[in-house]
Each structure stands twice: as structure tokens, then as C-alpha cells.
């Protein structure tokens, strides 16, 4: 039934009405209910005949055939009750009215009620009876036929559970009892407070069987079986803890100390405490009221004696009237019964479960978390079964008990992994089993128990390990859930961008971050005392070395926190900075100084070329929107070490330069997670790399031994703590822009600067690297200008100087890229080999003779005035051997080289038509002294130009004449 929000139907209002007023309010609000008049409790005004026959004053209908005459008509009810305020009010129950009632008397009745409802009595209409009992009302399907049922305690008087169903009625508030007391709605449980709850389906099924008693197999609820020998804390502490954590308990404690709780609340709280092993606490609670007497103590001790064999759990939060929303707020999550889909949370769990690992739970508290027919008996974790006579039978499972007290979700921004934190206790010795953290995927196998040594033991037998697993996993319903981030940089928290660092998240409290040990110093201050001063100290770094060095370093430093923003805009930076110079130039010291913008990072570089490829890859992934230093690419006489370093350098370059997944597989054929770089990086090196495409992926910065101003470097190191303050302020400023609806149009700035440089004819990657560094510089200076750390004219001057410097580097780097292109490298080596006569060619004319054949020289082909006609495999092998003697390898295969030579116009290919399609071959037929052969027709002008390259370098052509810009970011 739908709750009526009329204030007249609230419990506290109805309780103050007369019977006439109450039935009038109820009939108008709930037309489905059927009422009858009952005789007065004092029999005042009834005839003598009724007085003689009536043995239950206040409970007997005054109408003959009352089940048929019961009415919901307001006019009829008005005629019955008007002017008869001493009449009591009755309401019919059963299928006709669609309402049934449960009459509860004494501890036995309440216990049986909770057992019938599996300790999950729904929140419904409820009122107290003057004899100390209570009644619950529930809605059933209209027409449902249920007969009267009772479950009486044969060993005690007035203790029973009775079902009021077809052919019956219940006395209703505010009727009076013959002892002078009143039937009263329980506050918050009246028709105007809450809806009339539907009877749970599992209970309805049981009632249809004609019994209020459940079989053992139908029980699937927590069991508390703690031995009385176990110690507990002092009662006042437990009551105080519960009162702080639970509003319902706090109100009950207050009420108990004033004029005492009603019977229902007293029983709920006392039985909950006793069943969980807190008998002394239950006594202390009862003794707070003057209502407490010897009968109260007798009932509490009786509960204590019975709890060893109890087949039901602690009183649930829903029994106290708590909604699911309130339960989740108090407990953090809902424990749901799989069969009834009802919440099984109990207030006792707030006492039993302490999520702080510093406070170790008692065995009672462990036991209170157990779910299902499991408990602790004779120092063992046991499965409990019940015989026909309801005597418990205990089957030992293990000599320890454990709980999952924390579930940790660790995310790196791309994938999520769950971990469980468990602790436990050996039941016989009470030895603590210290907390362990295990991956959730390993929990089911139970091998993690060995982390506690040989003492924890599971009994042998089929299914034993799985039962122990079930018991322990069942405790996870009350576990604390913790979110952990394992990376740096931007993440959305509560819909807002926030920057993660080693100590948490800027602008948010209680955010946990776990990082690789080499990244743990990436920590930014939460509060900045003087943003302007901090930024001024950062700007002073520009004077530590020439601006061609420091402007680039400062630019990439302030570009790093922009990576996520630029990624969102589709213009993620794709390059790294290559800071190179001879040993002693202090390149690592300078790099660490700029790195200190992200934390206390002056000591050890977070990555180096001594690390494994996988570890460097992972740190690049974790250092999201941050700056990573990869230190010490250096020459070595060891060929194997050189290959390892070059291999790592190429992987790093391609990682930062392409940021594309490699699609590697695991052993089970599933794809392995690729850890692509998500921030920026600086490599410190003593040498440059070879390979054209590799060179296009880096922005070089050369540092000479005399470039560093040592006095300024030392001063900057002493003030390095200010650098992280400067970055913290900058990151907060960026965050405000990212969270703003009117975003800074950073993409337009990038595109405009790239277009501005397009006329220079420099390789697209190199131009874009210059633009990205410039973008970082401009954003950093914009922030500095906004807080008064730099004047606008000085900012403009630095930006203009930087743009010219960056484009000059891009132009020079473009020349290097062209010079070390694979085809260019091939021509250069062939020219050298011909020049030093390591190889030779014969004239193509048959009648032409060679004056002398060079000693130890290899024949590679023929020549005429226009071409060298070279044997393809022979010349490729000669070049390959030449590089091999120098500890190098040719960067591309022969087939790729021939294609590049064709594209560069350096060889004359053969063009054929095959079935209407053009087919291009790198080798072309030529008649030689040895017959008609397929040869590589290499233009002689290419080798002659290369031989004179040193002369031609002195006369450089203009940028616009030499190179043509490539528009795509991903070209090459």
C-alpha cells in the first residue's frame, strides 16, 4: 500500500487521538482496511450479559458475524464510534483485507520472529502492546488464504509468536488494555510515516506450509557461537562506540537512560549484543533504565545460554527501520542476502569491524563477520549443521579465522587491478596473523595462506579449502574499499580534473597514490606560500646557461603538464629532448635542476640507460603529464653494451616519437598491455644517434663545457624547493583552465605557430617539436605574467628569442636528418669504398681494358659515363661489411634500400607492364662482358656529389630552397 503523507496518520499524532478520531483518519486514508468496534477495556457501558460472557475485556467484537460486517465505510464507522470514546478499535486480518499481523510476546516470540524473517524484518507498520509485546502488520496479495498459526514456548508463560490471519482481527492503537495501558504506534512506524510493507515472498511460502518453524536447510543466516571464556573490552566503551557510529543506537541509549526503551527496542538491542558475544554490554545497557529488574537479567542470561546454539544472526539494520541509503552511508556498502535480496547489515558490525589495521579485532569481532552456517567452536572454524532435534553439529574446517578487511582497487589510468588485504588469528594460541596484501585473482586458490607460515592449517577433505575460502570471502561485505592510483598526472575526481603526485592529488584530500620507488619523490606542495616568489626563482634558471639551452629546457618542463590537455585536443607531443655534451659539461646536473620542478629530484635520476627496457618503458607510462629524465647515454668499447644502449635509445625514441601501441602478445595469446609514454622526457647523452627517422623524433640541445654559470647553478640548487612550488601553482592554474567551460584555445595556438613556420621547408616533425616546446614556454610565461612574476614586454622578448632559436635548431636538425637518411648513407659509403679502391667497377664496353686491378679490391659491377651498374647483393654486402667492422649495422633491409633509392631518384628502375598494371623493379637488364644481367643502375652524379660534399657544405642554399615541409605529424 502507498504511504499516506497526511500528518494525522503519523505515529505520534495517532497516539494522541481518541479511538473515534483514529478510525476516522484511518478509514479516509486507507479505504482497504476493515474495522470493527470492540468492547471497552473496563467494560464501562456494556450490558451485564456481555460482562458475564466476556473473558477478554477490550478484545471482544461487539458485532455478531463481525468478519462479514467489518467495514471500511466512513459513514458506518462514524455511526459506530461517534460518542463512544471508550470503545476499543479492532481491524480484521486475512485475505479479504489484504493485511496480516504478527503478535509477538516475550523474548521467545521476538526470537522466533527474527528467525522466520532470517533476521531481516522489513520496515513496516508496528505498534506496541501494553503487555510488553508488539505487533507487525504486512500486506499480502488480496484473496490470499492463510490460517492462524502459533509457536508457543511451552516452558514459559506469555511467550509466543502468533500469526493473525483469516477469520481473525487485531486490537489497534489507541485502544486501551484492561491493565490500564494503551496500544501505541511505535514512533516512525505509523501509517503516515512509512508504507505498509509487502510480506517477503520466502515468508509467505513458509506460511502457506502451515508452520512458523523453518527447517535447518532453510536457514542461511549468520551464526554466532563464541565461547564465554573469550575476553571483551569494557561495556561502556562498546556502548560509546556504537552510539558514535549508529544514530539508532545513540537514540536508544539516550531513551534508555531517561525513561527506558520500549520492549521491542530493548529486545532488539540486547539480543544483538548478546548474540555477538557482548553479554556484559547488554546488561550495562539494560541497567541504564529503572525498568531493569531481575526478570530482565534472567532474560539476558537466558539469551546468553542459548546463543551457543542460535541459528540466526544479529539484529539487522532494517529491523531498526534503517533504509538502504542510510545503511550504505553508515557501513560503506550493503551486504545482501542472495535469496531474499534483503540487506543483512547489522549495527554490531560497526563495533565488530574496525577498518584500522592498528586496532586488532578480537575473536568475537572476527566471528561477528562470519556469514552462513559457520562459526567458531573449540578453537576451530567450523561448519554448523543441525540435527532433527535442532542440536548443532560442528565440522572443523581450519584452526584459524581470517577476514578481508580492505579491498584495494589500483588503477594506472588504463587498467584496474583488485587486491585484498587480509588479517587473521590462530584460534588456539590467539596468535595474530599479520596483514597481507594479495591480488584478487590469486585469492581463490588459497595459496596465499602460506604467507603466514606453517601454523595456519586447513583440515583435509573434499571441498574444505573452498569452504574456508567462502567463509573468508563472505567477510568482504564489510571491508573498507580503497582507491589507489599508480601514476602521476591528470585524472578526473568528482568530475573535475586534478593532478596526481606522490603525496596525493592537488585540491583533494584522502587520495592515495602508489608509485615505483624511483618516482616517489615526484611530490608537489599542496599549499604555496608565495607563488610569485616561487615563479621568479624558476625564471632565474634561464640565466644558468645560454638561452639556446635553458629556454628549451624551461619550455619542455612547462609543456609536460599539458600532455593530457593536448591529448584531448588530438595534438599530443611526439618527441623527446636530447641533451648532449662531453663528460664534465654538467648536463645531468642541469637536467635534474629543471626536473626539480616536479619534486625533490636533485639526487638520483628516475631512469637511466643502465635500466632494463621494460622498466624505462613503465616509468614513462607512470610519469603521466610529468617530466622523466633518462640519464647517461654514453660511448662504450663493449660492442654488446653498445647494442643494448642503442636498442634502448631507439625504443625510447620511437615510444615518445610515435606513441603507438606495438600490439605484443602474452603466452596465452591475449594482447599484452603496452605502456606508452604519457609525459615528456629528457635524455642526457655524450653522443648523438644515427638514423634519419630517429633523429626526426628528437629535439637536440647541445651543452658545452663552458656553457654553465657555476655560481648561478649552485644558487639555483640551494633554492630548488621553490621550483616545485612554482610547478604546483602552474598546475593549479592549468587545472582551472581545463575545468573551465570557456577553455583556453590551445589547439589554435599550436596550429597557428605551425603554419607560421611552414614556409621554412623544414621536416614536419622537427617543426612540430619546436612548436610544442614554444607552447610550453608560452603557457609557463603566461602563468608567470598573470601572477606578476614577469613583465609583459620581457615575456614577449623571451618568446620571440625562443621562437628564432627553436626554428634554427629545427633547420639544422633537418639537415642532419637528410644527411643520415639510409639512401644518403649508402651513397656516401659506396663513394668512400670506390675512392679508397676497396671496391672497383669495370668499363661496360667490351674493348675497354683496365690499366690495373687494385690489390685486394672487390669487383662490384661495371660503369659508363652516366651509371654505375652494380650487382645488387654484392654492393649491399660490401656496405654491410664496412659498417660491421665499425660495430654498426645498416638501418634498413636491401629491399627497403632499393625502394628508397628509387624514390630519391638515385637509381634508374625498370618499368614493365604486367596484365595492364605498371610494375617497377629496382634492377634493370644490361649487357655486360659476362652477359645480360639484372643490375642496379646507380647514377654517377650521386656519387660524385657525395665525394664533393665537404666542398658543397660551405655553400648552403636557403631553407626554402633546400627542404619541403611534411604536413603530417606522423610522417616518417
UniProtKB/TrEMBL annotation:
One Pfam family it belongs to: Prim-Pol
SUPFAM superfamilies for the chain: Prim-pol domain
Biased composition, class Polar residues, residue ranges: 950-962
Signal sequence coordinates: none
Superkingdom of the organism of origin: Bacteria
Domain (DNA primase/polymerase bifunctional N-terminal) ranges: 25-203
Region span, Disordered: 950-972
Coiled-coil residues: none
Protein name: Bifunctional DNA primase/polymerase-like protein
Protein's organism: Paenibacillus pabuli
Amino acid at each position: 500500500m502507498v504511504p499516506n503523507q497526511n500528518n494525522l496518520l503519523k505515529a505520534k499524532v495517532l497516539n494522541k487521538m481518541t479511538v473515534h478520531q483514529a478510525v476516522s483518519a484511518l478509514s479516509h486514508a486507507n479505504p482497504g482496511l476493515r474495522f470493527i468496534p470492540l468492547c471497552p477495556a473496563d467494560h464501562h457501558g456494556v450490558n451485564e450479559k456481555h460482562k458475564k460472557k466476556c473473558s477478554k475485556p477490550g478484545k471482544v467484537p461487539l458485532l455478531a458475524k463481525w468478519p462479514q460486517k467489518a467495514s471500511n465505510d466512513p459513514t458506518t464507522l462514524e455511526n459506530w464510534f461517534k460518542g463512544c470514546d471508550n470503545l476499543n478499535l479492532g481491524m480484521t486480518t486475512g485475505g479479504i483485507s489484504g493485511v496480516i499481523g504478527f503478535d509477538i510476546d516475550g523474548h521467545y516470540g521476538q526470537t522466533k520472529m527474527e528467525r522466520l524473517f532470517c533476521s531481516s524484518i522489513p520496515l513496516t507498520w508496528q505498534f506496541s502492546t501494553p503487555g510488553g509485546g508488539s505487533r507487525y502488520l504486512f500486506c499480502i496479495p488480496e484473496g490470499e488464504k492463510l490460517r492462524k498459526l502459533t509457536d508457543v514456548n511451552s516452558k514459559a508463560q506469555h511467550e509466543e509468536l502468533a500469526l493473525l490471519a483469516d477469520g481473525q482481527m487485531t486490537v489497534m492503537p489507541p485502544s486501551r488494555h484492561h491493565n490500564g495501558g494503551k496500544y501505541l504506534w511505535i514512533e516512525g512506524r505509523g501509517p503516515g510515516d512509512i508504507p505498509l510493507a509487502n510480506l517477503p515472498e520466502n515468508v509467505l511460502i513458509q506460511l502457506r506450509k502451515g508452520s512458523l518453524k523453518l527447517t535447518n536447510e532453510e536457514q542461511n543466516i549468520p551464526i554466532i557461537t563464541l565461547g564465554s571464556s573469550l575476553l571483551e573490552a569494557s561495556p561502556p566503551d562498546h556502548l560509546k562506540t556504537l552510539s558514535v557510529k549508529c544514530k539508532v543506537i545513540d537514540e536508544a541509549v539516550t531513551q534508555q537512560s531517561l525513561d527506558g526503551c520500549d520492549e521491542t527496542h530493548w529486545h532488539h538491542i540486547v539480543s544483538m549484543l548478546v548474540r555477538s558475544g557482548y553479554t556484559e554490554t547488554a546488561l550495562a545497557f539494560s541497567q541504564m533504565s529503572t525498568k531493569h529488574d531481575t526478570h530482565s537479567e534472567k532474560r539476558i542470561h537466558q539469551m546468553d545460554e542459548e546463543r551457543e546454539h542460535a541459528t540466526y544472526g544479529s539484529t539487522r539494520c532494517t529491523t531498526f527501520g534503517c533504509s538502504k541509503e542510510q545503511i550504505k552511508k553508515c557501513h560503506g556498502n550493503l551486504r545482501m542476502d542472495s535469496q531474499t535480496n534483503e540487506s543483512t547489515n547489522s549495527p554490531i558490525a560497526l563495533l565488530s569491524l574496525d577498518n584500522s589495521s592498528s586496532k586488532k579485532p578480537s575473536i568475537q569481532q572476527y566471528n561477528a563477520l562470519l556469514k552462513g552456517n559457520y562459526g567458531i567452536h573449540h578453537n576451530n572454524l567450523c561448519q554448523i549443521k543441525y540435527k532433527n532435534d535442532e542440536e548443532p553439529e560442528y565440522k572443523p574446517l581450519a584452526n584459524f579465522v581470517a577476514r578481508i578487511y580492505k579491498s584495494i582497487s589500483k588503477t594506472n589510468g588504463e587498467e584496474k587491478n583488485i587486491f585484498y588485504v587480509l588479517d587473521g588469528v590462530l584460534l588456539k594460541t590467539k596468535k595474530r596473523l599479520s596483514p597481507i596484501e594479495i591480488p584478487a585473482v590469486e585469492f581463490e586458490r588459497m595459496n596465499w595462506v602460506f604467507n603466514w607460515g606453517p601454523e595456519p592449517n586447513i583440515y583435509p577433505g573434499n571441498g574444505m579449502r573452498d569452504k574456508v575460502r567462502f567463509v573468508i570471502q563472505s567477510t568482504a561485505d564489510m571491508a573498507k574499499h580503497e582507491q589507489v592510483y599508480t601514476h602521476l598526472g591528470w585524472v578526473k575526481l568528482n568530475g573535475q580534473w586534478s593532478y596526481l603526485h606522490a603525496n596525493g592529488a592537488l585540491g583533494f584530500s584522502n587520495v592515495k597514490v602508489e608509485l615505483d620507488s624511483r618516482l616517489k619523490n615526484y611530490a608537489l606542495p599542496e599549499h604555496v606560500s608565495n607563488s610569485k616568489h616561487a615563479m621568479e626563482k624558476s625564471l632565474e634558471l634561464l640565466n644558468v646557461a645560454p638561452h639556446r639551452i635553458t629556454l628549451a629546457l624551461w619550455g619542455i618542463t612547462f609543456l609536460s603538464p599539458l600532455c593530457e590537455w593536448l591529448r584531448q585536443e588530438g595534438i599530443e607531443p611526439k618527441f623527446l629532448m636530447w641533451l648532449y655534451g662531453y663528460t664534465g659539461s654538467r648536463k645531468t646536473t642541469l637536467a635534474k635542476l629543471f626536473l626539480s620542478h616536479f619534486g625533490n629530484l636533485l639526487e638520483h635520476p628516475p631512469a637511466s640507460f643502465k635500466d632494463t627496457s621494460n622498466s624505462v618503458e613503465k616509468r614513462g607510462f607512470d610519469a603521466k603529464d610529468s617530466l622523466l629524465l633518462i640519464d647517461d647515454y654514453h660511448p662504450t668499447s663493449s660492442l654488446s653494451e653498445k647494442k643494448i644502449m642503442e636498442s634502448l635509445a631507439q625504443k625510447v625514441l620511437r615510444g615518445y616519437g610515435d606513441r603507438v601501441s606495438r600490439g605484443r602478445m602474452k603466452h596465452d595469446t591475449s594482447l599484452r598491455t603496452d605502456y606508452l609514454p604519457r609525459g615528456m622526457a629528457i635524455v642526457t647523452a655524450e653522443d648523438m644517434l644515427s638514423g634519419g627517422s630517429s633523429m626526426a623524433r628528437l629535439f637536440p640541445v647541445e651543452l658545452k663545457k663552458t656553457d654553465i654559470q657555476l655560481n648561478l647553478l649552485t644558487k639555483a640548487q640551494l633554492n630548488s624547493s621553490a621550483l616545485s612550488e612554482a610547478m604546483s601553482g602552474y598546475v593549479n592554474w592549468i587545472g582551472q583552465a581545463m575545468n573551465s567551460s570557456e577553455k583556453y584555445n590551445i589547439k589554435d595556438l599550436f596550429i597557428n605557430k605551425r603554419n607560421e613556420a611552414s614556409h621554412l621547408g623544414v621536416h614536419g616533425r622537427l617543426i612540430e617539436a619546436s612548436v610544442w616546446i614554444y607552447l610550453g614556454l608560452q603557457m609557463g610565461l603566461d602563468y608567470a605574467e598573470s601572477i606578476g612574476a614577469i613583465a609583459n614586454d620581457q615575456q614577449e622578448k623571451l618568446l620571440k628569442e625562443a621562437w628564432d632559436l627553436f626554428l634554427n635548431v629545427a633547420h639544422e636538425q633537418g639537415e642532419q636528418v637528410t644527411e643520415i637518411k639510409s639512401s644518403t648513407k649508402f651513397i656516401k659509403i659506396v663513394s668512400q669504398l670506390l675512392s679508397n679502391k676497396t671496391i672497383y667497377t669495370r668499363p661496360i664496353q667490351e674493348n675497354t681494358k683496365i690499366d690495373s686491378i687494385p690489390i685486394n679490391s672487390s669487383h662490384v659491377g661495371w660503369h659508363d659515363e652516366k651509371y654505375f651498374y652494380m650487382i645488387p647483393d654484392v654492393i649491399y654486402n660490401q656496405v654491410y661489411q664496412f659498417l660491421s667492422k665499425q660495430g654498426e649495422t645498416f638501418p634498413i633491409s636491401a629491399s627497403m634500400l632499393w625502394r628508397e633509392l628509387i624514390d630519391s631518384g638515385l637509381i634508374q628502375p625498370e618499368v614493365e607492364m604486367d596484365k595492364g598494371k605498371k610494375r617497377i623493379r629496382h634492377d634493370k637488364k644490361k649487357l655486360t662482358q659476362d652477359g645480360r644481367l639484372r643490375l642496379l643502375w646507380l647514377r654517377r652524379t650521386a656519387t660524385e656529389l657525395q665525394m664533393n660534399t665537404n666542398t658543397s657544405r660551405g655553400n648552403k642554399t636557403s631553407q626554402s630552397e633546400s627542404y619541403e615541409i611534411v604536413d603530417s605529424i606522423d610522417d616518417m
